[in-house]
Write a structure and sequence with these properties.
Strands 1-2 form a two-stranded antiparallel sheet. It is about 65% helix and about 5% strand. It is mostly helical and about 240 residues long.
Length: about 240
């Protein structure tokens, strides 16, 4: 999929400034696996594809670098960040610290409507037939049970870590491979929350994230890394 096609799926970003638009399109392309780990991000091609100058592209790449999605390498310029197994494991460990803290505080506070919305997200995920839809509903479920509406800084940290690792599940076509285990774990987690057992919910969530981490690392160790390139309809000289 080309970047201009990613842009077409994000009509609201057209009202943003140029560098915000570029950052949003590249972020979407990276987190959905359109742009893969280690893939070069040539500024000329990005500018031509999104019909902007080089300045907003540079600003956008610097923004994504601060988010951990882009890396600058000597003699290569900007590339999509690639994480080692140790880095992925560390990200999941940090997620566990933040997300178990969130769920401990959320469990006594979530009302019936919020819990029903979380259950509806699980129902929809279990009926999903494509990985992107399943992954989006998985993220929705986790956000709902963390009750982050009044905690913007915690939300920002958790969402940033999610973006760093969820893209691997999508880009390698793994979202549906382990769905049975994940869906069972989600149901047990929701049951603990409905029972107002914060300790049990935190324990199940920590185990869920640790299992996801090890499954992802194992998959990345054994799966091929097909090459990908930024494609442009506009020739760049």
């Amino acid at each position: 999929m080309d970047l201009d096609q990613v842009l077409e799926r994000m009509p609201r970003v057209r009202k943003q400034s140029s560098h915000e638009l570029v950052a949003d399109v590249l972020r979407e392309a990276i987190t959905t696996g359109v742009l893969r780990a280690n893939q070069p991000l040539p500024q000329d091609e990005i500018a031509a594809q999104l019909r902007v100058s080089h300045i907003p592209v540079r600003e956008a790449l610097r923004q994504l670098q601060s988010e951990g999605l882009v890396t600058y390498q000597a003699n290569r310029g900007a590339t999509v960040t690639s994480h080692s197994a140790e880095e992925i494991r560390e990200i999941y460990e940090i997620r566990a610290i933040l997300e178990t803290a969130a769920i401990r505080s959320a469990t006594p506070l979530l009302d019936a409507e919020q819990l029903n919305r979380a259950e509806a997200a699980l129902d929809a995920a279990e009926a999903a037939i494509d990985g992107a839809t399943w992954g989006s509903l998985d993220v929705d479920f986790h956000k709902l049970i963390y009750n982050l509406d009044g905690r913007p800084r915690l939300r920002e940290l958790i969402e940033g870590l999610l973006r760093r690792v969820d893209r691997y599940w999508l880009s390698h076509g793994l979202m549906l491979k382990h769905r049975a285990e994940f869906e069972s774990e989600h149901r047990a987690l929701l049951e603990a929350i409905r029972g107002r057992n914060a300790d049990r919910a935190a324990e199940l969530l920590e185990r869920h994230l640790a299992g996801a981490s090890e499954r992802l690392i194992t998959e990345l160790d054994t799966s091929p890394q097909p090459a990908a390139a930024v494609r442009s309809k506009t020739p760049v000289g």
